[in-house]
Hints:
The complex is a heterodimer.
Chain A: E1 5-14, H1 22-31, H2 38-44, E2 49-57, E3 61-66, H3 72-80, E4 87-92, E5 96-99, H4 112-122, H5 127-141, H6 156-169, E6 174-178, H7 186-199, E7 205-209, H8 213-219, E8 222-227, E9 230-236, H9 237-257, E10 265-268, E11 272-280, E12 289-291, E13 296-304, E14 312-319, E15 324-329, E16 342-349, E17 357-366, E18 372-377, E19 381-385, H10 411-418, E20 423-429
Parallel strand pairs in A: 3-7, 3-8, 5-6, 6-7, 12-19
Antiparallel strand pairs in A: 1-2, 1-4, 8-9, 10-18, 11-13, 13-16, 14-15, 14-17, 16-20, 17-18, 17-19
Chain B: E1 7-9, H1 14-36, H2 46-65, H3 74-101, H4 103-106, H5 115-141, H6 153-177, H7 180-194, H8 207-214, H9 217-231, H10 237-262, H11 265-268
Helix pairs in contact in B: 1-5, 2-3, 2-5, 3-5, 3-6, 3-7, 3-9, 5-6, 6-9, 6-10, 9-10
Amino acid sequence: xxxxxxxxxxxxxxxxxxxxxxxxxxxxxxxxxxxxxxxxxxxxxxxxxxxxxxxxxxxxxxxxxxxxxxxxxxxxxxxxxxxxxxxxxxxxxxxxxxxxxxxxxxxxxxxxxxxxxxxxxxxxxxxxxxxxxxxxxxxxxxxxxxxxxxxxxxxxxxxxxxxxxxxxxxxxxxxxxxxxxxxxxxxxxxxxxxxxxxxxxxxxxxxxxxxxxxxxxxxxxxxxxxxxxxxxxxxxxxxxxxxxxxxxxxxxxxxxxxxxxxxxxxxxxxxxxxxxxxxxxxxxxxxxxxxxxxxxxxxxxxxxxxxxxxxxxxxxxxxxxxxxxxxxxxxxxxxxxxxxxxxxxxxxxxxxxxxxxxxxxxxxxxxxxxxxxxxxxxxxxxxxxxxxxxxxxxxxxxxxxxxxxxxxxxxxxxxxxxxxxxxxxxxxxxxx
Amino acid sequence: xxxxxxxxxxxxxxxxxxxxxxxxxxxxxxxxxxxxxxxxxxxxxxxxxxxxxxxxxxxxxxxxxxxxxxxxxxxxxxxxxxxxxxxxxxxxxxxxxxxxxxxxxxxxxxxxxxxxxxxxxxxxxxxxxxxxxxxxxxxxxxxxxxxxxxxxxxxxxxxxxxxxxxxxxxxxxxxxxxxxxxxxxxxxxxxxxxxxxxxxxxxxxxxxxxxxxxxxxxxxxxxxxxxxxxxxxxxxxxxxxxxxxxxxxxxxxxxxxxxxxxxxxxxxx
Lengths: 432, 269
């Protein structure tokens, strides 16, 4: 093993629970009133982790992503030495600081400062060292006078500051970070990121677990993708992250099929209601998958109680991670149609600029004066795919593809171009 | 499928680890002590109240049942036994849930798990010291003859602590997995206090039962405390050696169980 290899995991298997000898299990199972059969063992064979092997070198930041229950936290617990591996070999060198849940071990009645000492002691840092690091920790937490208050008065963000202040300043060789960056305000989170980036290439090896893929992309040198306890992809960041997005999108589409997907959230006035939203291709066939660059039609069916003059229509596409990726509006069109009774209108996007993923439709309809007439989210979902013949790998980290024309060098302008958005009132009909 | 057992290797300096164990133990005890009585009116007085309460009950029972007390004032006869008993029983009751109570630590940080029962012993030891001050007052009040036999005390306290920790390890290991153990704990200690010569002298136990009775390792310890504190005698070595043997046996059983089960505490919490 190379001296620079800090973490070495070989063929790790993990099954939770006490590995009791078979006869005790038999006996226990009988006591609980069931018949013992071979099926019992098969049911028990639930592996939290299977066949995991990887290495992490000094100064590396290794990201671990995966859906809930994929085994990320289990892996961290094994690395931390909290729970033993069932099979395989795990070797970790140097001091470990597990930031699995930072408030572990804090006492509510003690002051912030006392808790810094307590936390340090629990993590195996000597009192003298904490004392020498105290000014740094105090400065990092920015808690000032709060440090003399009992931590039961702290908010969760303040607790996180305290924990992070210790974690970031004790100079552990191995930092295990599990979803702790999600608390704390934005400025503080930013500070933690910067601090972690500083640690990159230093002595510390960081294992970073997060569902926030953008954090992973920003921080990590390498990423491991776990699914059902197995490594399904590991290596270069963008590649693995792409795979993860793909996996999540598959799950979302699966949910959409089963109609478990998020119900549309609407808030509407009594005057108007959108009754149906469908996604159509250029031949007006209803679809749930479109290709990047194709034409996309979003058809809204509406009902109004009276004639509404020249409402403003807005349409937005929201990505899986809830980012409003693109939005369009017809407020700059002078001759907008009036809405009356029931009818439909189509929003047509030529040359769809969205990249592969799953998007939901959001829409907003305003009165001429700007008051909200109708607002809705998750109105419909569709998947965007690309032709695999084309090489889109260069785009894998962006959300929308900008069309650029040589004569217009400013991407903003060309962006407007690509989002050209004509609003075609198909037909309008009165009730009765 | 058969797997070769998993191995976790984390080479660390043994000296630093030992140092860490003690500072951590100290931190946990300090944490418990500072935090425990923060929201009570009587505070550490509770450490005294429990043995005093038993003493009052026993004194009342004595009025009804006419229990002899080896020629010693009954109050001090029973209180001198209750103080070490409370230390012993207090340790076990603290050890039982100690791992579950610290589940946030157990699940997140690799620590020698023995630290939680050990902290239970230390916590009970603090209460013991508080309760002992009343005992000293009583001994002065009743003008108990002080002799060199008191030099036995540190050894006796240590023996009680080791026996209690041994049982505590077993109770906390099993109690973490199945809470039945914790539910049974109060009954068992109630029974145990009656099966130990605390409210009555050993001499009152029928001779037919004496052999079985003396297998209780607390018999020798409580008798030794009373001999040393009140009667000014050296402990009965034959009784005490039963206690020592019992302690060794308890450790031989409880320690390996705890060692094995403690690895998997994080899995069940």
